[in-house]
Every structure is written in structure tokens, then in C-alpha cells.
Design a protein that fits this description.
about 200 residues, P-loop_NTPase, 3-stranded mixed β-sheet, Arc Repressor Mutant, subunit A, about 40% helix
Amino acid sequence: MVATEKTGIQNLYSVLAYATRVNSCRRVMIAEHFDETWDSSWCNKMCDNCASNSVKDCTNENDLDLTKYITMAKEIIENYNHSSNDKGSGRITAPKLAELMYKKLSNISREKVEKILSTLLLQGFIEEDFHFTPYSIISYIVMGARGKYNGGSSSSSSMPSSSTKNSIKDHKKRNANEPSSSNGTKKSKIAVIELI
């Protein structure tokens, strides 16, 4: 399983970023993966993102601010963790988190909820916590370092679009590089993605 490989999770998240990113040329992303240079103008609308004209700057009015979704995921995870009883372990899996968020968000499709959760995972707001059993590996969702310290900050950043290798980092490196304010509390930048 990828959870036990040295770079397995990083590679899996690279594939996830490739599949969910709609604002970058696919050929540029593949070239970056192999440390090649590729100008997006060379694509000539041959990839699906360029053909659909979705490759553009992430800072337009169609972008989605993830602040409320981070807060909602945090509330669901914390409520689920504190409500452990005879029926459950008090931990939540990604499909269950997606289901509970979808029930709360009647105006967003299930596919978009899953895309939001994948972005939160890639950005480090939520993390996977793997539990090994004799027959399987169970992935539970916990709050990541960036999600734990999300105190309603109004600053924003876009979903990484330049380099898949640089945007998908090891969780330990991400935790160590969190920005801190002058009073010692950690601040986080809120991600913005475009949903099609």
C-alpha cells in the first residue's frame, strides 16, 4: 500500500492534484513532474483544461473561498471525535465526512464537495491518519496543521498551480513552515479554488 512506501503518499497526492486541478495546462503539469520545461502556449488547446478555456488566473470572481468549508469540516471532525459511543470509534473517514458536508450544503453537488475535500487535503487543512489492521489499512481524516490554526484569517491564496512537486509536500515539512504572527500564534492562508 502507498501508506507504507517512503514517497507513496506524496506520489498519490501528486496524482490527486493532477486530476483535480482545472486551472493549469495538463502538459505543463506532466512536464513539471519529469523536471522538463514546457510553455503552456505550446499546448495549442490540446489538453482538456486548455480546450475548455479553464486555464486562467485563479483570482477572478468565479473562485470559491474555502474558509466556510474549512470551518465546517473542522466542526464535523471535532463533533464526530467527541461523540464516540458503542457504535463507532469516534473517528471519521473521508466518505463519511463528504456525506455529512453534502447534507449540510444543499446547494453544492456531491462531486464539488469531494473536490473541496481533496483541495483541503492537498493544502494541508485536513490530513489522513492511517490505522493498520491485520487485513487492511483504514484512513481516517483529522485536522491538519493549517486547519487547526485557522482562526478566521481573511488572507487568501490560490490552489497551487505552478509545480505539483513543490505544492505536495510532506506533512512534517508543511507543519514546520507554518507562518507565525508576532504574538506566537500560527496563522494560515485560506485556499481559493475554482469549481467548474
